[in-house]
Design a protein that fits this description.
Layout: E1 3-6, H1 11-19, E2 26-28, H2 38-48, E3 52-55, H3 69-89, E4 93-99, H4 123-137, E5 142-148, E6 151-152, H5 164-174, E7 177-181, E8 185-186, E9 189-190, H6 191-203, E10 209-212, E11 219-220, H7 221-232, E12 237-241, H8 269-278
Parallel strand pairs: 1-2, 1-3, 3-4, 4-5, 5-10, 6-9, 7-12
Antiparallel strand pairs: 8-11
Length: 279
């Protein structure tokens, strides 16, 4: 199987490379390929002719996207359709990653795979939803559209990529107390578990379509932060606060819990967190 991993220097791609290393994947990041360049995508895919494309390339800066709407949509929307059409043309399987932020967060009992996103509440979510729609509209495409949330995993270079876990640890070492919102709910996703879930999807030849692959169960950012501090053995006090007291450029969904109803449930995020920090 000839495998191509896009966005190869990102958190998720590093563990995809680890899990699929026996396939000797071709690795490409933005230095090698511009996902928003139609001609470059077509040329690369037609020349390489991969059997499987894992697309971990995306515009992911949620707050910055509020000012860079055009760039976010160009990468997450237009880039996705270029890739989807190129994959369909050579009959390659495309695995594309999306986010809980495609949902508005008003559904308290969580979102199933077939729940239709209505109104994304920030530019990042809207751009990812645009990409989702373009995949669903692409004719003759073999695809797995996989939604994940609250992602954490390794950094290609120390400090190059931020994730919530590393941010909390840094703050915990610098401050005696930190405030974390306790009225936003979702599920953390460990990149290694996501990568293993993708391998399961492919090896089991699951039906093409939309899947959710977060760890279990749901939690709040506050409880996630408390567990990080506890596992690291830090003395920092974690104080719960309301979102309205911690305003950011992009609005966040209040409850973006992804429900996995199609696959074996992922392990508990607490267990994944301990592995991430100490293995």
């Amino acid at each position: 199987m000839k495998l191509l991993i896009l966005g190869s220097k990102g958190m998720l791609a590093q563990d995809l490379n680890l899990v699929f290393r026996e396939s000797n994947p071709f690795l490409m990041d933005k230095e090698e390929i511009d996902i928003a360049d139609k001609n470059q995508i077509n040329r690369t895919i037609s020349n390489l002719k991969p059997d499987l494309i894992l697309n971990a390339a995306a515009y992911t800066d949620v707050d910055k996207a509020e000012k860079e709407k055009e760039t976010a949509f160009k990468i997450n929307g237009e880039g996705t359709v270029f890739l989807a059409k190129a994959a369909a043309k050579i009959n390659a399987l495309l695995v594309h990653f999306s986010t809980d932020y495609v949902f508005d967060g008003d559904k308290e009992d969580g979102y199933k795979e077939n729940d239709e996103p209505q109104n994304s509440i920030n530019i990042y979510g809207a751009s990812k939803l645009d990409g989702e729609k373009k995949i669903l509209e692409t004719k003759n495409l073999k695809y797995y559209l996989v939604r994940i949330s609250w992602l954490f995993g390794p950094s290609f270079k120390k400090g190059q990529y931020k994730n919530f876990v590393e941010t909390i640890i840094k703050l915990g070492k610098e401050k005696e107390e930190i405030k974390v919102v306790n009225d936003q709910f979702g599920k953390p996703s460990y990149t290694l578990d996501v990568a293993k879930g993708i391998k399961y999807l492919i090896e089991q030849k699951m039906p093409y379509g939309i899947y959710h692959l977060p760890n279990e169960p749901w939690t709040s950012w506050y409880n996630f932060a408390k567990k990080i501090i506890e596992v690291k053995g830090l003395k920092t006090k974690v104080i719960p606060c309301e979102t309205k007291k911690f305003l950011r450029p992009a609005k966040r969904p209040r409850c973006s819990i992804l429900l996995n109803t199609k696959l074996p449930l992922q392990r508990k995020w607490e267990e994944a967190l301990k592995e991430y920090l100490y293995d």
